[in-house]
Write a structure and sequence with these properties.
Length: 266
């Protein structure tokens, strides 16, 4: 039932699904996340890369999805080398942690040193706004439910969406994009990530580990996110809406003219 035009009336509203999703490695549960039960292969792979549990796709020997009335279990089995690495990490997780983050041993590990992104994609303001428009138009689940976030990969040179993923959690949506990029071996040389959320430091960390040089979001970043993006060489754009945006770091990648193609340089 809804209140519309000064009266109560029967109504129907689609709602987004939210379910517990367990990520297990070699038979041991690593984490349980609340998320949207779609694109789960992408989520499993993206989470594994984001958490530095794997370095390459071959580190995951198998992935099985088990559904039950209580939720979904993403069962992964690691290669022998990564299995040893994961066993050592689980021993560390079993010890005391003082900062409230699972699986780390010190406050320094909460904000680890990230690889500096070397790629030099460029976006014009027109391309950036086109990416935001494409992101909005591509959010099929959000159009139905008005309750999920989205993350997308945008090809700055071609001016088109490469992929889009949705989830009730913004971190999950980005992990799904990261997983898709690895599973599909996408060329990220001229890629940007575009998101429908504020930018916390974790989103910058995930972007840096994927090696994408531009992160665009419709809301503002935190101060720590700006510092982290600056140190990682990432161009961070926030408050991107209504044909306006703010560039917080490495503004040289936002240029008024499109970058010429390699053929034009040849």
């Amino acid at each position: 039932m809804s209140w519309r035009n000064g009266a109560l009336a029967a109504s129907f509203r689609p709602l987004a699904e939210e379910t517990p999703i367990a990520l297990t490695y070699d038979g041991a549960t690593h984490a349980i996340m609340m998320g949207t039960p779609g694109d789960l292969e992408d989520f499993a792979v993206g989470f594994s890369f984001s958490e530095n549990l794997v370095d390459q796709m071959s580190d995951i020997e198998s992935l099985d999805i088990q559904e039950s009335p209580d939720g979904v279990e993403l069962r992964m089995w690691l290669s022998p080398a990564r299995r040893r690495h994961y066993a050592r990490r689980r021993l560390a997780m079993a010890g005391p942690t003082g900062c409230g983050l699972c699986g780390i041993e010190s406050l320094e590990q909460a904000v680890p040193k990230l690889p500096r992104v070397a790629r030099e994609a460029r976006m014009t303001p027109a391309s950036l706004l086109a990416a935001l428009d494409a992101l909005a138009r591509g959010q099929a689940l959000h159009k139905e439910t008005r309750s999920v976030h989205a993350a997308a990969l945008w090809n700055c040179d071609a001016g088109r969406l490469m992929a889009i993923r949705e989830d009730v959690g913004r971190h999950n949506a980005l992990d799904k994009i990261i997983g898709h990029a690895h599973r599909a071996t996408l060329d990220l040389e001229s890629a940007a990530i575009v998101m429908t959320s504020r930018v916390s430091v974790e989103l910058v960390q995930k972007t840096a580990r994927l090696g994408v040089p531009i992160l665009v979001a419709i809301s503002a970043p935190t101060i720590l996110a700006v510092r982290t993006a600056d140190a990682a060489g990432i161009t961070l754009v926030g408050v991107a809406r209504n044909s306006e945006f703010d560039v917080f770091t490495h503004r040289h990648r936002i240029c008024t003219q499109a970058r010429r193609s390699e053929k034009e340089h040849a």
